[in-house]
Amino acid sequence: MSEVRIRPRQVLVLIIVFIVVLLMVHRNGKRTCQGPEYLQAMYSKAQADTLPKIYAITPTYARPAQKAELTRLSHLFMLVPNLHWIIVEDSNSTTALVRNVLVRAGLENRFTQLNIKTPPEFKLQGKDPNWIKPRGVEQRNLALTWLRGHADADRHAIVFFMDDDNSYAVELFAEMSKIKPGRVGIWPVGLVGGLMVERPLLNDDNQVTGFNAAWRPERPFPIDMAAFGISIDLFFKYPQASFSYEVQRGYQESEILRYLTTREQLQPLANNCRDVLVWHTRTEKTKLNAEEALQRQNKRSNDGIEV
Predict the structure, then answer these.
(1) Are 278 and 169 in contact (CB under 8 A)?
(2) What is this structure's pTM?
(3) Which of 18, 192, 245, 298 has the greatest CB tally within 10 Å of its CB?
(4) Residue 75, annotated ligand binder?
(5) Do the domain assignments include residue 254?
(6) Which residues bind UDP-alpha-D-glucuronate (predicted)?
């Protein structure tokens, strides 16, 4: 057997590399400890198995920016330990593109991929404004059906309707984790309804007495879909709770909440509804004039590339 000889210089290099690795681990450890208190608390509760799971329901559909939107959201799931992502595609089958995003983010054990097609009569056509027809009804209802059949009815968890084009602070999910069993948590949403912020109005006892909504303020719950999270036990208690096409524009939130809570029972979060942790942002429609010109020549800039 031949003898392996290690020179002193090689030993020195190995020692230096070992020290550098130790320093990196130490620095990363300190960096983790110096993170926001709310995130530290979430990880501590997760290790103790006392952090409620949050089922985030996201309807999605094929479009040029779909992968970009879902990739951005996937970074939240990398940071927040108690999120389970239920993605429901508006398609006849689940797609490899969506699954690739989830797997690439390391979420193999933390997602459920479903699909259901929106009926043609409820699909937006051509240049229809996005508000003219209710969106995500089939997809959200399928997710609720899945939850009722697969979630543990005896274990506290939260349900959140998480559209793929909004912007979410990580802290929102720390606040959401405070929702009590049998309650619906509520918080402000920025840049929605023609206002800088839509928010609940509270009395001196921190009870919701109204809302500052400017658009259709007569709605029972004049809030955005991103403004609330729901204790999962309510969906088992009220199996009829669902979304519907047979409601007026802007009433989807009121439609689901009317089964589950009253204004007085809402649980204010986010510093008694003074902190904005979610924004109703929208991605500008992608301009692909040059791409369309290529396609007329039977060419594509992304031929063989998933974008």
Answers:
(1) yes
(2) 0.87
(3) 192
(4) no
(5) yes
(6) 59-61, 90, 135, 140, 163-165, 280-282
What's the confidence (pLDDT) of residue 131? 67
> What pLDDT, on the 0 to 100 scale, is given for residue 6?
42
Q: Is 20 within a domain?
A: no
CA 210/CA 212 separation, integer angstroms: 7
- Cβ contacts of residue 246 below 8 Å, gap of 6+? none
Q: Assess if residue 60 is contained within a domain.
A: yes
Among the listed residues 216, 231, 228, the one whose alpha carbon sits nearest the alpha carbon of residue 263: 228
Q: Is 59 annotated as a binding residue?
A: yes
The answer to whether the Cα torsion of 251, 253, 254, 256 is positive or negative is positive
Query: Among 64, 62, 124, 96, which residue's Cα sits nearest to residue 292?
Result: 64
Is 61 labelled a binding residue? yes
Q: Is residue 134 part of a domain?
A: yes
Alpha helices in the chain (DSSP H): 8-33, 37-47, 66-79, 96-104, 137-150, 170-176, 233-237, 252-257, 270-273, 289-295
Q: Which residues are catalytic?
A: 253
Domain count, the chain: 1
pLDDT along the chain (307 residues), means of 10: 44 43 42 71 95 98 96 96 97 98 96 96 74 86 98 97 96 98 98 98 97 97 98 98 94 97 97 98 90 95 95
Task: Flag whether 219 is marked binding.
Answer: no
> The CATH number of the domain where 99 resides is what?
3.90.550.10
Per-residue model confidence (pLDDT) at position 16: 45
- 220-240 exposure pattern, b = at least 16 Cβ within 10 A, e = fewer: ebbbbbbbbbbbbbbbeeeee
Q: What pLDDT shows up at residue 156?
A: 98
